[in-house]
Write a structure and sequence with these properties.
This protein has helices at 31-40, 44-52, 63-76, 87-90, 93-98, 102-117, 126-135, 177-190, 205-214, 229-237, 259-266, 297-308, 311-328, 331-345, and strands spanning 7-10, 22-25, 58-61, 80-84, 120-123, 142-144, 164-168, 195-199, 221-225, 241-244, 271-274, 289-292. It is of the alpha/beta class. The chain has 2 domains: 7-148 and 330-345, 3-Layer(aba) Sandwich (Rossmann fold), CATH 3.40.50.2000; 164-328, 3-Layer(aba) Sandwich (Rossmann fold), CATH 3.40.50.2000. Helix 3 packs across helix 6 (102-117) and helix 8 crosses helix 12. The relative contact order is 0.12.
Length: 346
């Protein structure tokens, strides 16, 4: 941002905060303070700290944190912006309550306070904007504004020799990793040198690792775990294609947009995704990559084999992807729009 100075606020410590960032963590006041905030959504420490910093606006990411920010925004007398990303407007209220997570229960219980107090609800895609309105968010205060990609930092790079596919995702049902493994078993028979790099971790790690063994592709699949952002970008650059075959999870959870798709496109890599959630807003079929139906490993394998076997096709789609990011998702442009919104509210 060029006009505003950010203060990062959270219940927990911020292990990946930018160097030199102004971080406020409730954890510094001890576990009782954190638990009290988790249960009541109120913290005198937080209000005093932000008032001392002369905070002019609160911006919460995800509806859950928006609900938690309402009492603080009211106490400070400042506008509250909330960005809606995906699960917060796609997971059903019944499943949120059944999770037994206090924060999710608070979200369902106190959501109307957010609807009433929130100045603007920023949606990362048109799909999320539609779902937000269906979920009950006031349509007149929703705004579609995707988060951008820093095109000055993420640059196009030459295609590598190795026919590698990269998948960047938390290992949960929504990301479709199991479908990708089934597709990769077919890809590996057609392209024996093919590799699959999976970046991310989650509750399905063990199950997915066992599936790779069962499918006979474990030696060509690498589970890299959670990696720093710079390493993620480096692995994408060392791959021919990024694949994110997201699906609608049993609890209704859907993809908001898929930032990994946009970062890969900015690198000049073609992307393969599903016709799901906000993905079609980040992937133009046969222009920046390919779209296939949800839960269709055969169609997924067909597109991946085509890309791994045709460097010229990869180059054409990668060039299209870079242009899409520059035209619609450039970080400086998107941030300028966000700061303009802040200015209107402040």
């Amino acid at each position: 941002m060029r006009t505003y100075h950010p203060v990062f606020v959270g219940r927990d410590p911020a292990p990946r905060a930018p160097a030199g960032a102004d971080v406020v963590s409730l954890a510094t006041h001890g576990r009782p303070a954190t638990m009290s905030y988790l249960l009541t959504r109120r913290s005198g420490h937080l209000v005093r700290t932000l008032r001392d910093r002369e905070v002019r606006l609160l911006h919460a990411h995800f509806g859950v944190e928006g609900v938690f920010a309402v009492p603080t925004a009211r106490a400070l007398g400042v506008p509250l912006v909330t960005t809606l990303h995906g699960f917060d407007v796609s997971v059903t209220r019944r499943h949120l309550l059944a999770s037994r997570k206090p924060s999710w229960a608070n979200y369902v219980t106190w959501r109307r306070s957010l609807f009433e107090t929130g100045a603007t609800f920023v949606c990362v895609s048109e799909h999320i904007q539609r779902r937000a309105i269906e979920w009950g968010y006031p349509a007149e205060r929703t705004l579609m504004l995707p988060i951008g990609v820093d095109t000055e930092v993420v640059k196009p790079v030459p295609l590598p020799e190795t026919p590698r596919i990269v998948h960047v995702a938390r290992l949960v049902e929504k990301k479709g990793t199991a479908d990708l493994l089934h597709a990769f078993a077919v890809v590996h028979r057609a392209v024996p040198a093919a590799e699959l790099a999976i970046i991310g971790d989650g509750p399905l790690h063990g199950q997915l690792s066992a599936l790779a063994t069962e499918l006979g592709v474990a030696e060509s699949v690498r589970f890299l775990g959670v990696r720093p952002h710079a390493e993620v970008l480096a692995t994408v650059a060392q791959s021919r294609v990024l694949c994110l075959p997201s699906v609608t999870a049993a609890n209704g959870d859907q993809e908001g947009l898929g930032m990994a798709l946009l970062e890969a496109a900015a690198t000049g890599r073609p992307v393969v995704g599903t016709r799901h959630g906000g993905i079609p807003e980040a992937v133009m079929d046969d222009v920046t990559g390919y779209l296939v139906p949800e839960r269709d490993p055969a169609a997924l394998a067909d597109r991946l084999v085509a890309l791994l076997g045709d460097p010229d096709l990869c180059q054409r789609l990668g060039t299209g992807g870079r242009k899409l990011v520059e035209d619609r998702f450039d970080l400086s442009t998107q941030t300028a729009k966000l700061e303009s919104l802040y200015g209107e509210l402040v």
